[in-house]
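Researcher: We're teaching a course module on how sequence relates to structure. For the next exercise, students receive a sequence and then see the predicted structure as tokens, so they can try to spot secondary structure elements on their own. Here is the exercise chain.
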Amino acid sequence: MVEGTPVGTQVLEMIGYIKSLEKLGFPIGEELATDVIMQSLSDIFSQFVLNFNMNEINKTLTQLLSMLGTIESNMKQARHKPILMVCKNKGKRKPKAKAKPKDNGKAKPNKGSA
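Model: And here is the predicted structure for the students to work with:
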């Protein structure tokens, strides 16, 4: 699935391919068809796919299309919420005073004199 493509378009296209296979004499079961559609989804649906498989949800392809459309619309709504993070003591700090070099009263030897 190409990023930015509506999930409904992708799933309808995959259902069309599955129906074409059935017309050609190679019907695949509902479970395999669901797995093929799930594998074609982008990574943003990975949590949905995991939840779907863990709960062993049995839905028809049209019900799956409806569920994915709902999930996509919820993700679009949640994506636009700004987040403000407040951290303690992260504001402007006073500049530190520069440390003076320590001589310890010793003179530096001249390298060029012999």
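Model: If you want an answer key for the exercise: The mean pLDDT is 80. The longest helix spans residues 61-79.
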